[in-house]
Structure formats: C-alpha cells, structure tokens
Design a protein that fits this description.
CATH superfamily of the largest domain: Periplasmic binding protein-like II
Strand content: 25-35%
Largest sheet: 8 strands, mixed
Radius of gyration: 31 Å
Number of helices: 11
Helix content: 40-55%
CATH topology of the largest domain: D-Maltodextrin-Binding Protein, domain 2
Oligomer: single chain
C-alpha cells in the first residue's frame, strides 16, 4: 500500500468518480483505475460499488476510509515538521482604560512563550473615530471603545454597516468627586446649581468618556469654569486635594478616595457602554474571543 493510493481513495470518495479524482490529482484515468484495482487486490476486498449517481463505498470500504483519513492527517503533520511556523500579528487599540491594558497583560501571559507564534501589540488611541478608522483600514485587529448607553444600539448598527463586529464588555457611569465636606455634595446629593462656581478637573480625550461631562451637565444649566485637564494620575489627585475644584471622571478607585479623603457620587443619566469593535478573521478568532473575555474579567 502506497501513500499515493491513500490519496486517490480519498479523492474518489469526495468526487464519487475515478476520472474526476484523477483529474484533481493530475494523473490519467487509466493510471488511477490501475492504482485502485491494485489496492483492492492487495486488501482482498472491493472498496467501491458503482451506482447511477457515482461510486459509493462498500461496508469494508467505509471502515477502510476511516484509517485512510487518519493516515492523511498523520502525513500532513509529518510534512509540516520542517516548515516555518507562520506568525500571527495581533494588535489591540484602546482609549485609555486601565481594564483594557490589564486584559492585554493577561493575553501576553498566555501567548508570550515559545509554544505560540503570536506577535502582540497594544496602542492607546486618542479618539473613537480614530479607533474605528484604524480597524477599518487594517491598522488594528480589535478596539476597545465606548458611547453613551442611550446611543449603544444605533452605534452598533452603524458599525455593522461597515462590516465590522461588536461585543459588549460592560457599562459604567461618570461620577463627581471632591474633597469631603465640599459644598457641591450636600446630604448625599450633588448640588448641581453650585457646580459652575468651582473649577473642573477632567481628562484629555484619550481617556474616553470624560469629555462627555459637559453634555451630561448641560441639562442642569451648569456653566463650567476652566480647570485642570490631564489624564488620571497622582498629580491630578494631589491638585484636586489642594483646591476647591471637583473631578468629573470614570469611577475613582476606592484606594484613591481613601488616600485623598474624597467623596464621590454618580452623575445622573451618565451611563456609558463599553464594547469591542473588531474585524472578523478566522485566523485570529481565538485571540479576539480571549481578549474580550479578559476585558470583561478586568472590567469587573
């Protein structure tokens, strides 16, 4: 029994014809017929029965074909031993979110070994528009982005029209933080009419949701004063502590609140939806699925 005969039998099963199988293997029909007869003589039984619709396997042929498939798989594995391993490049884009970076770290922990041919990259992007544009043109594989929760359904419909996929990660709200006993927070309620009397602390656009703060406050008639604009960091919290200002941000970590003695309350109707946008790619499907899973775990 030769490997060429195994390959021929599998081709005949697919094509249900000796001549068509021979054509796919670039051999002549007489050669294929001779190879089939030789194998059947060696085995001592027929592999096929001729019907009006083509060749079908005999009972013995059905059992033989399972062994033939196993042999074919083994041959493919052997042939790949000396082939160079194809590297998969996977790039994550994100607005400045701690949880998205933590998720990327988890992905790296799994794939940065010699057992995987995966090259991983992470890039902070300054705007939602840039993220989607980069995913569309192939500059990234998956982006962590956001929108107002009330706009989530219409947003994902618009993304779907661009032939991109989405997966929801979670929701959060913006909150107002300030020094304890600040007049802005009275009896556990935000005194919105007083907000315009104090300087605002918020973040640069790369932090995602915080630039929406003025939109959420407009309905309360708030006129915002100039303030401090910078990404979350100890300097921002130290400046806030020394001032009579207030911070509009994504939820501040409890450790920061305790360390700087801040009070925080959620801003009404300021819910944000966080979701992933990605291009469908069979080669990277498992990486996309794993990264989304890690984002959900880190987001909690």
């Amino acid at each position: 029994m030769k490997t060429e005969q195994i390959t021929l039998i599998l081709a005949i099963v697919r094509e249900r014809s000796v001549s068509k199988a021979a054509e796919t293997l670039f051999i002549s029909q007489p050669t294929a017929s001779t190879m089939l007869k030789s194998l059947e003589k060696e085995l001592g039984y027929d592999l096929f029965i001729r019907t009006k619709t083509g060749l079908i396997l005999t009972d013995e042929g059905g059992e033989f074909i399972e062994y033939a498939k196993a042999i074919e798989r083994s041959l493919k594995s052997i042939s790949q031993i000396r082939q160079p391993v194809k590297r998969i490049d996977f790039k994550v884009l994100s607005l400045k979110y701690d949880f998205s970076e933590a998720a990327f770290e988890k992905l790296c922990d799994k794939y940065l070994t010699n057992d995987y041919a995966v090259s991983l990259a992470f890039q902070n992007v300054s705007s939602i528009e840039d993220e989607q544009r980069m995913i569309e043109n192939g500059s990234g594989d998956i982006a962590v982005t956001m929108c107002r929760k009330s706009l989530y359904e219409s947003t994902i419909r618009g993304i779907a029209k661009k032939h991109l996929e989405t997966a929801q990660i979670g929701d959060y709200h913006l909150e107002l933080s300030c020094n304890k006993n600040h007049p802005i927070i009275q009896n556990g309620v935000i005194a919105y009419p007083l907000i315009g009397s104090y300087p605002l602390f918020t973040s640069i656009p790369s932090s995602g949701a915080e630039p929406f703060a003025p939109q959420f406050l407009m309905k309360y008639g708030v006129v915002l004063r100039n303030g401090i604009v910078m990404d979350p960091c100890d300097t921002r919290y130290r400046l806030l502590k020394k001032s009579n200002g207030y911070l509009i941000s994504t939820p501040v970590p409890e450790s920061i609140k305790e360390s700087y003695v801040f009070d925080s309350l959620p801003i009404e109707d300021s819910d944000i939806s966080i979701f992933a946008v990605y291009r469908k790619d069979p080669l990277k499907e498992s990486l996309i699925r794993e990264y989304i899973k890690y984002c959900k775990l880190s987001f909690r």
